[in-house]
Amino acid sequence: MRTKLTRHKTVACLATALLLVEISGATAPVVNAQQASVSISTPFQDEIKSPVLKPTWTYGISEFDTQSSFMTNVIAVQEKLIVLDKQGKLAALHAKTGKKLWEYGSDMLPILLNSNGTIYGINQKGTLSALNENGQKKWTASLKLSSVDSIQRIGGTVYVTAGLKFAAVDAATGKVKWTVSETDPTYSAGDAAIMQSGNVIIRSYIVQGALSAIQINAYDATTGKKLWEQFRQSFPLTVKDGLVYSISDPYPHMEDPVNRKIEVAVLSLQTGENKGQRVYRWTDKESKDGSISSGGTINTAFLDGNDFYIFQKGTLVKYDFWKYSNDQQPVKKWNQQYEDRWPLYTVYDGKMFYKNYNTGGLVAIKLANGQEINYDLGDNPTVQADIIGKGVFIGQSDGVFRAFHLNTLKPVFTLHTGSRRFGPTIQSDGMVYIQSGGKLYAVKLPAALK
């Protein structure tokens, strides 16, 4: 039997229900949201808007952790890229298409060199190989060196450094000229960089004694015989007219915290005999605890052509290196931020570059007017930053790779790699090559960066 409920009956039922609630004194429960005990908010920067590119091609490459300017697993050779693949072989790829053209070797190290179209590589056993652009072997040289850290060609000689050892190989024939090994127990490390002037090779080492300090050694380039050594002298600024110019290591005979100086020793290239000294002086504010700081933006220097730059804590100064006198004054001065900066000892596009070691990004001082330019342009911490031509290329910790214009700072393109690991960027023949997470990504260079 169906029961009909009229409108009047419905109203009566609702009224009765409300009355019962009122009589019982019951009320609906009140729920209060718990407020945060501590709370902050940080405004986000505007979204970086640029075209998201897809790679023209990708290829699997090896990965390595050592940070050295001489170590690389990708080099450009004409219209090819030579890469170290995941199997430890050298592979030649067509630069535009990524097509593999040839492969060579096994257990190769991420140390590659292209010199006038000849490709040099070395394997884990210390065998050095020279190949032509088509992957054909010119020669091999068994050096039996371990822990190799560089291959360098100077004139008609290929030099291979490996810790406290280094070898010289004839670039035309592969004949080993000589091998040097510093076996004295006071030697603890060798610099990968070498310098040759005339028939003299110079290399620097860390030497331990009562105190550890830098030492430079000179060798005969023909025989490898040691000619001389100078303790507490840095890798040369330059060599000119038979004289070596080298910054002296002040430790432990450091000056007082107010009267600072950079000393440059002038040494005979052939004998190492001290022929003179240059002293660049300035004053600094005394620290409260009387300590003396050095390194980075404090009390370091480098030579760029004729320009001798000295980082003097809050000031960067420039001298004309070849117009030295005892009372010489700086040609120019700039203010510099020093507390979170590390100089890269590089001048490019009229700018002095630094690394911000808090963010990992690039910062520069415009030498024309002292303006500071921040190239830390991404929206996540910087893992890799490179400036090539007109481009600023940044690999971020979120796996995003971004390109910006060097002068306008405008974003140009974005590439998603999915990996927080990045290697140095390469630009060649209208293409940009990005190393990330064991892959090589190739993209066309946008017109804005040409």
Fold and architecture overview:
The protein has one helix at residues 7-24, and strands at 57-60, 74-77, 80-84, 90-94, 100-104, 108-115, 118-123, 127-131, 137-142, 150-154, 157-162, 165-170, 176-181, 187-197, 200-207, 213-220, 226-231, 238-240, 243-247, 259-268, 274-283, 298-304, 307-312, 315-320, 332-335, 341-348, 351-356, 362-366, 372-374, 382-388, 391-396, 400-405, 411-416, 426-428, 431-436, 439-444. It is globular. With 450 residues, the protein is mainly beta. The N and C termini lie far apart (88 Å). A hairpin with a 5-residue loop joins strand 3 and strand 4 (90-94). A 4-stranded antiparallel sheet has the order 1-36-35-34, with no helix packed on it. A 4-stranded antiparallel sheet has the order 2-3-4-5, with no helix packed on it. Residues 1-25 have low confidence and may be disordered.
Features:
signal; PQQ-binding-like beta-propeller repeat protein; single chain; 450 residues; disordered N terminus; four-stranded antiparallel sheet; mainly beta; 1 helix; PQQ_b-propeller_rpt
Strand order of the largest sheet: 1-36-35-34
Which percent range fits the helix content?
under 10%
Determine the number of helices (DSSP H or I, runs of at least 4 residues): 1
Task: Profile the largest sheet.
Answer: 4 strands, antiparallel
Strand content: over 45%
* Gyration radius over CA: 32 Å
Identify the overall geometry. globular
* Category by helix and strand content: mainly beta
Low-confidence stretches: 1-25
Mean pLDDT: 91
Strands, count:
36
Distance linking N and C termini:
88 Å
